[in-house]
Write a structure and sequence with these properties.
38% of the residues lie in helices and 17% in strands. The protein is α/β, with parallel strands linked by helices and 599 residues long. Strands 2, 3, 5, 6, 7, 8 and 9 form a 7-stranded mixed beta sheet that branches. The protein has a 6-stranded parallel beta sheet with strand order 12-11-13-14-10-15.
Length: 599
C-alpha cells in the first residue's frame, strides 16, 4: 500500500455484518497497527452491494461516519468467521445515511438491530423521524423480552397515558409507564412516610424509656400511627402562592415575590450548583426556600427534582425494580432528569426521539441526544415514516434541507402531496366540505382566524383547549391591565411560546370579550360536528390527520423545526399558506415554483 492510495475501512455497528470501504484512488485500506491486524484485514472477504449499472459495480453510498460525510462501498462479510475479526480491526462506527439509497439500507439494518436488542449497551439512542413507529418499536421490545422489567418515562403526561392504553390493549405487563415527575413524587412520598414512621417510633421509645406510657396510651398511639400518613402536597409556586409558604413575603410587592419564584426555579433547573448560595450569593430568602424544601414544607416538582439530584435518591434504586429504562421524546428533555439518569441510574437506557421535533426550548428543555456521552452511547437512526408517502416526503426534505432525511414506508399507491404557495396562482385549499386540521404557531393568529371564519354552516369550527385557554387569557389580561405601561421582562415572555402577552396588551377588556364572543358564535358544541379543527402546532405534536393546513405565521429561518412538525402531520394532503411578503420587489424576485422567503 502506498501513502495516499489508501482507503479507510469500518465495521458498521448496529448492522448484520456490514462493512464500509471509503471510495478513493487506491485499492488498499488504511494501514493497521500490527502485522496480525493486516493479515486479518486481508482475510476478510466482502460481498458488495451492487448497483443497477450494466457492469454490476459496487454501489456508492453517501454516509456520515465519525462526524464526516463520506462516499463508501458497503459489503457484507461472506462468513461468520471473517466477521468475527471485527473486534480486532481499527475502525468500528455507526453510519448515518446521507442519501436515499443509504437510508433504505441502514433503516432496515438499524430496525433489525433494535428488534434483536439484548439490553447489552449502557445507552442506546434511537433518532427516529416523525411517524416512524417509535412507540411501537419500544412496545415490541417489551413483548419480545417478557422477562425484562421496563420503566417507560417521558415528560409528557398525555404521552404516558397513551402508552398505558396501548400496553393494556396488547396485554403487555412488564412495562411501567410513568412521567418523571410522577416517579420523583412517588419516591418523595415514600421517603416522607418513612420519616414519619421513624419519628413516631422514636417518640414511642422515648416515652417507654421514661415509663410514662400506659396500655391505653399505647393503643391510642398505634391508632394515630395508622391514620397519620400525610399526603405529599405539591405547591404550584407562583407569586400569589409564595406568601403562604413564606409568610414574611405575604404583603410584599408582586414583583419581589415574582423575582424569588423565578430565582428558585432557575436554581432547581440547573445541575451544577447544589446550594442556592453558591449560585446566587447574598440571597438569604432563596436559601430559606431551599431549607423549607429540604424539610418537606415547600414541595414543588422543580424542588423535588433538584432534591433527587442533590441527594442521589435514585442511586442504585431503580435497578432493584427494573432491568431497563426507556426515555421517550428525548429531544425535549429536562436537564436535571438527564443528570440523574446518566449519573445515578446504572441499568441500560434507551433514549428515543426526533431531534427535528425539538420545539420546547422556550420552556428550558434540552436535546438529550446532544448531551449523551459518546464513549458509552450507541446511536442508530430510523428514516422511514409510515405516515407520509411521496412526493411529499421528498418535498419536505427539499424544504428543510440537509437537516431532514426521511423516506416513505407506506404503499407506493398511497401518495401524500405537499401544496406550496406559487406566485401568480390561486392558493390551493382543501375541497369545500373536506374536514381538515388547521395548525398555527401562535394563539393570536388562531383566534383572529377563528373570529373571521365564515361558511354556509354557522358553527363549523372546533378549537382544541379553547375553554382553558380563555381562562388563562382573561386572568393574564387582568394582570397586565393593572399596569399597561410596564414592559414585560424576558423571563415573562419566555413563559409563552408566542407573543400572547403583547397581543393582550393591545386589547381592551371589551375587545377581548368581543373576540371571544365572535369565536364562540362560530364554534360547534361537538368536535365531530365541525369540519375545521384548529390547534397550535405545539398542541398537535404527536397527532396526525388526512388533511392538514399550515397557517402562514411560521418564520422558517427561525422556526424550521416547528415547520417540520407542522408539515409532517398530514397523511394525504398538506397545504402551506403563503407568507406575507414585504414588497412588490420581493414578489417579483420570488421563485415561480416556491416562495423563497417561505423556504
Amino acid at each position: 500500500m502506498e501513502g495516499n492510495n489508501t482507503r479507510r475501512m469500518w465495521k458498521l455497528k448496529a448492522t448484520r455484518g456490514l462493512w464500509a470501504v471509503e471510495v478513493g484512488v487506491g485499492v488498499g485500506v488504511e494501514a493497521p497497527e500490527s502485522e496480525s491486524d493486516k493479515q486479518r484485514q486481508q482475510q476478510l472477504e466482502l460481498e458488495w452491494i451492487r448497483g443497477d449499472d450494466d457492469d454490476n459495480r459496487p454501489k456508492c453510498f453517501q454516509v456520515q461516519i465519525k462526524g464526516k460525510d463520506r462516499t463508501v462501498h458497503i459489503g457484507r462479510a461472506r462468513s461468520t468467521s471473517n466477521d468475527d475479526t471485527a473486534d480486532t480491526l481499527l475502525h468500528g462506527a455507526v453510519a448515518q445515511a446521507r442519501c436515499e439509497a443509504a437510508m433504505c439500507l441502514l433503516d432496515a439494518e438499524h430496525r433489525a438491530f433494535v428488534a434483536a436488542y439484548k439490553f447489552d449497551e449502557e445507552i442506546l439512542a434511537i433518532k427516529a423521524v416523525a411517524g416512524s413507529g417509535k412507540t411501537t418499536t419500544l412496545l415490541n421490545l417489551c413483548t419480545r423480552n417478557p422477562d425484562k422489567r421496563v420503566l417507560y418515562i417521558a415528560f409528557n403526561k398525555a404521552l404516558i397515558e397513551d402508552i398505558k392504553e396501548k400496553a393494556a390493549q396488547r396485554g403487555i405487563r412488564n412495562v411501567t409507564p410513568m412521567t418523571f415527575d410522577a416517579l420523583v413524587y412517588k419516591e418523595a412520598a415514600s421517603r416522607q412516610q418513612q420519616q414519619q414512621k421513624q419519628k413516631q417510633q422514636e417518640e414511642k421509645q422515648e416515652r417507654q424509656q421514661r415509663q410514662l406510657i400506659s396500655i391505653d396510651e399505647e393503643m391510642m398511639m398505634l391508632m394515630m400511627e395508622s391514620s397519620s400518613s400525610k399526603t405529599l402536597e405539591i405547591v404550584d409556586l407562583k407569586p400569589h402562592s409564595l406568601g403562604r409558604a413564606l409568610p414574611w413575603l405575604e404583603d410584599k410587592p408582586w414583583a419581589v415575590k415574582d423575582h424569588y419564584v423565578r430565582a428558585f426555579n432557575a436554581f432547581c433547573k440547573q445541575p451544577r450548583y447544589l446550594e442556592p448560595g453558591a449560585m446566587m450569593p447574598g440571597k438569604p430568602l432563596l436559601e430559606t426556600m431551599w431549607k423549607e424544601t429540604r424539610a418537606g414544607r415547600l414541595n414543588t416538582f422543580a424542588g423535588l427534582r433538584k432534591l433527587a439530584q442533590v441527594d442521589h435518591w435514585f442511586k442504585d434504586r431503580l435497578s432493584k425494580d427494573y432491568d431497563c429504562v426507556f426515555i421517550d421524546e428525548a429531544q425535549d428533555f429536562d436537564t436535571i432528569m438527564l443528570e440523574i439518569l446518566l449519573l445515578d441510574v446504572n441499568i441500560p437506557k434507551i433514549f428515543v426521539g426526533d431531534p427535528m421535533q425539538e420545539i420546547y426550548g422556550w420552556r428550558g428543555c434540552i436535546n438529550a441526544f446532544a448531551r449523551l456521552p459518546p464513549s458509552t452511547t450507541l446511536c442508530v437512526e430510523f428514516y422511514t415514516t409510515f405516515r407520509m408517502g411521496n412526493p411529499a416526503c421528498r418535498d419536505v426534505c427539499a424544504l428543510l434541507g440537509n437537516s431532514c432525511r426521511m423516506i416513505p414506508g407506506v404503499d407506493q399507491k398511497r401518495e401524500t402531496h405537499l401544496y406550496t404557495p406559487v406566485w401568480g396562482e390561486k392558493m390551493r385549499r382543501p375541497e369545500p366540505g373536506t374536514r381538515f386540521v388547521w395548525l398555527f404557531r401562535t394563539w393570536r393568529c388562531l383566534l383572529e382566524e377563528a373570529a373571521r371564519w365564515s361558511t354556509e354552516k354557522s358553527k363549523d369550527i372546533w378549537i382544541n383547549g379553547f375553554a382553558a385557554q380563555m381562562n388563562v387569557m382573561r386572568a393574564l389580561h387582568k394582570k397586565l391591565s393593572k399596569n399597561p405601561s410596564r414592559n414585560l421582562s424576558k423571563a415573562e415572555e419566555d413563559e409563552f411560546s408566542d407573543d400572547l402577552p403583547r397581543y393582550l396588551l393591545s386589547l381592551s377588556h371589551a375587545d377581548l370579550e368581543n373576540l371571544i364572543a365572535k369565536i364562540e358564535n362560530n364554534m360547534a358544541d361537538d368536535p365531530d360536528d365541525a369540519s375545521v379543527h384548529m390547534y397550535t402546532i405545539h398542541a398537535y405534536k404527536g397527532l396526525e390527520d388526512d388533511v392538514v393546513v399550515v397557517y402562514n405565521d411560521i418564520d422558517p429561518a427561525k422556526d424550521d423545526k416547528l415547520l417540520y412538525v407542522a408539515v409532517t402531520r398530514g397523511r394525504r394532503e398538506v397545504y402551506l399558506e403563503p407568507r406575507k411578503l414585504p414588497s412588490v420587489v420581493a414578489k417579483r424576485d420570488a421563485s415561480r415554483k416556491m416562495v423563497s422567503q417561505y423556504f
